[in-house]
């Protein structure tokens, strides 16, 4: 199987600080791939590089065989990349449902004339979009918030809403940045089930996460970062027994 | 779901239409009609500006400039060159659309104060050109504008019309025409807001980075809404010129831009009906306080400040919220 995401020799420097240095790894299609590491290891920077928020100082990123370095996030979205944020990015000036419908932006033809005159073709598309968004909200467990404003939702529900929005784009790969942060035990268990359901649909999942129990339970492969460099890569079993990883996490 | 949404939209339009229809019962002389017509035209301008400021969260302190181009293009072409008013007005709007697109692309990359400064400068340039090119615009003294006409049918405040057997004065005809324009402006604005384009615009305000990762080309959408709001201003500027029959460079001035923005902020950002209320209040206020005319700009500044501090959501949304609170409290009391 060819790699869906292929990263080679990736560097990102902020002033004199190398947040990511000489990083290479690849994610196969259909995997749940997790990136772990201590705080400040460069996990979120890596996500921002892959999704086009940052431009790398050096290195290559291929998505589905195509070089995507320096591409704008909206261009990457067109190529099937979708993500959530550690600092949630929800549009609080919109309803919960509209946030998810926004996720289908690329699936909708937005013609100015049909919009200005509100022609029937637009209404049909909007209705389909709305139905799909409602389905997705139920899928992630936000069913009771369909009529709510985003600003009226709880933290945990907003995290799931952001996943629903990311799924609305029919992505090939979804990057989740610390989806379990701030969730309680029950919510984390629900999240684990949700990630498995997403992967079961054939969507590749890349995960940054601190919750070791969650990560070890669901990942096919893991990448361990420390000070922006690759410390180890492998299956959960290999990572658990890797002496470097143990040293980085437990000190020594 | 979809139906309730559409009903809500329709309800607002119907209420507005009813207000426009019953308002003449309270208006007794041509001056009242003149005021109401001006309010309707300015309100329609502000409805367009609100798309940019309220919904997409981008500031423009130069919108009077676009209003001015529309007004002066119509005035100059119809009076000096005998162009027919309707095609001239549409051509002016297209011209303003192109100008807004060209200036909008680079300046909408700026954020916050820088964007305000850039739009301010655009407005100033337009006002200066209108002021200085006296050979064609009449300069600071202003210029007369022929009345509006379509296919030989002339709409003038001084004419008499018969409509369904009723005699209608010209100023009343203009009032109803302006009311129709306002309804149309609101309808189109609501169509934009409640569409994929509208969602993309609002997401630029809500979270630009979220918008980008779901595939919204934010730069393109910002330019688009800038152009739409500028076209609104140009169209209404042309109508305003034909209605008043005489225009001065003041309509393109910085002060006028501030008045327009204050109407949006006071009435309620991202509230289409709120900004109409804002336009009405700020158009009527100087009439009520005519004795303090020289303090007008200070008053607008004060209103802008006080609204930002005490009522950041604006008049209508704040009133709606209070009403909702009161109703739910009443319900609780009834149940107890």
Automatic annotation (TrEMBL), chain A:
Claim: Cytoplasm is one of the keywords in the record: no
GO CC aspect terms: plasma membrane
Signal peptide start and end residues: none
BP-aspect Gene Ontology terms: D-alanine transmembrane transport; L-alanine transport; L-isoleucine import across plasma membrane; L-valine import across plasma membrane
GO molecular function: ATP binding; ATP hydrolysis activity; L-isoleucine transmembrane transporter activity; L-phenylalanine transmembrane transporter activity; L-valine transmembrane transporter activity
Residue ranges constituting the ABC transporter domain according to the UniProt record: 5-252
Record SMART domains: AAA (SM00382)
Keywords: ATP-binding, Nucleotide-binding, Transport
Domain of life where this protein originates: Bacteria
Protein name (database record): Amino acid/amide ABC transporter ATP-binding protein 1, HAAT family
The organism of origin for this protein: Marinospirillum alkaliphilum DSM 21637
UniProtKB/TrEMBL annotation, chain B:
InterPro entries: ABC_transp_permease, LivM-like
Localization: Cell inner membrane
Residues annotated as signal peptide: none
Membrane topology: Multi-pass membrane protein
GO cellular component, as recorded: plasma membrane
Main localization of the protein described in the UniProt heading: membrane
Transmembrane segments: 38-57, 64-83, 89-107, 114-131, 143-161, 173-193, 224-246, 258-285, 297-316
Keywords: Cell membrane, Membrane, Transmembrane, Transmembrane helix
One GO MF term: branched-chain amino acid transmembrane transporter activity
Record CDD domains: TM_PBP1_LivM_like
Protein name as annotated: Amino acid/amide ABC transporter membrane protein 2, HAAT family (TC 3.A.1.4.-)
The species this protein was found in: Marinospirillum alkaliphilum DSM 21637
């Amino acid at each position: 199987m060819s790699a869906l995401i292929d990263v080679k020799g990736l560097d990102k420097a902020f002033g004199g600080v190398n947040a990511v240095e000489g990083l290479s790894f690849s994610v196969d299609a259909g995997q749940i791939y997790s990136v772990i590491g201590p705080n400040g290891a460069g996990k979120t920077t890596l996500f921002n590089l892959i999704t086009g928020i940052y431009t790398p100082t050096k290195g290559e990123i291929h998505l589905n065989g195509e070089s995507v370095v320096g591409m704008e996030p909206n261009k990457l979205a067109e190529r099937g990349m979708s993500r959530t944020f550690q600092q949630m990015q929800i549009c609080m000036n919109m309803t919960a449902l509209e946030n998810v419908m926004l996720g289908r932006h690329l699936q909708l033809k937005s013609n100015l004339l049909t919009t200005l005159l509100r022609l029937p073709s637009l209404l049909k598309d909007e209705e389909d979009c709305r139905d799909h968004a409602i389905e997705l909200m139920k899928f992630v467990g936000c069913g009771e918030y369909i009529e709510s404003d985003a600003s009226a939702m709880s933290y945990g529900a907003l995290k799931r809403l952001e996943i629903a929005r990311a799924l609305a784009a029919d992505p090939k790969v979804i990057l989740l940045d610390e989806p379990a942060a701030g969730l309680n035990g029950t919510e984390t268990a629900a999240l684990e089930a949700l990630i498995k359901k997403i992967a079961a649909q054939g969507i590749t999942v890349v995960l940054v996460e601190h919750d070791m129990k969650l990560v070890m339970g669901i990942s096919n492969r893991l990448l361990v970062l420390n000070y922006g460099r690759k410390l180890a890569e492998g299956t959960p079993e290999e990572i658990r027994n890797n002496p470097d990883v143990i040293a980085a996490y437990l000190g020594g | 779901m979809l139906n309730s949404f559409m009903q809500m939209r329709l309800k607002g339009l119907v209420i507005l239409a009813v207000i426009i229809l019953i308002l003449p019962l309270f208006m007794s002389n041509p001056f009242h009609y003149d005021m109401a017509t001006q309010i309707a035209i300015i309100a329609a301008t502000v409805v367009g500006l609100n798309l940019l400021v309220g919904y997409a969260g981008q500031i423009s302190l130069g919108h009077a400039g676009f209003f001015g181009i529309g007004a002066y293009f119509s005035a100059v072409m119809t009076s000096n060159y005998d162009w027919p008013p309707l095609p001239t007005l549409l051509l002016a709007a297209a011209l303003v659309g192109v100008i807004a697109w060209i200036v909008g692309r680079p300046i909408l990359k700026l954020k916050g104060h820088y964007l305000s400064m850039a739009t301010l400068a655009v407005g100033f340039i337009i006002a200066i050109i209108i002021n200085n090119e006296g050979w064609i615009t009449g300069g600071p003294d202003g210029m007369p504008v022929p009345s509006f006409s379509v296919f030989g049918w002339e709409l003038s405040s001084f004419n008499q019309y018969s409509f369904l057997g009723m005699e209608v004065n010209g100023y009343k005809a203009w009032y109803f025409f302006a009311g129709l324009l306002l309804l149309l402006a609101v309808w189109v604005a609501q169509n934009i807001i409640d569409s994929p384009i509208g969602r993309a615009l609002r997401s630029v305000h809500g979270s630009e980075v979220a918008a980008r990762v779901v595939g919204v080309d934010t730069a393109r959408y910002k330019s688009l809404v800038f152009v739409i709001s500028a076209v609104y201003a140009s169209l209404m500027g042309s109508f305003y010129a034909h209605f008043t029959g005489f225009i001065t460079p003041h309509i393109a001035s910085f002060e006028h831009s501030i008045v327009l923005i204050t109407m949006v902020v006071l009435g309620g950002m991202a509230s289409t009906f709120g900004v109409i209320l804002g336009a009405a209040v700020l158009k009527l206020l100087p009439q009520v306080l005519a004795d303090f005319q020289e303090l007008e700009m200070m008053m607008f500044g004060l209103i802008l400040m006080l609204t930002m501090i005490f009522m950041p959501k604006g008049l209508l949304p704040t009133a709606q919220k209070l009403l909702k609170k009161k109703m739910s409290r009443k319900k609780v009391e009834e149940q107890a």
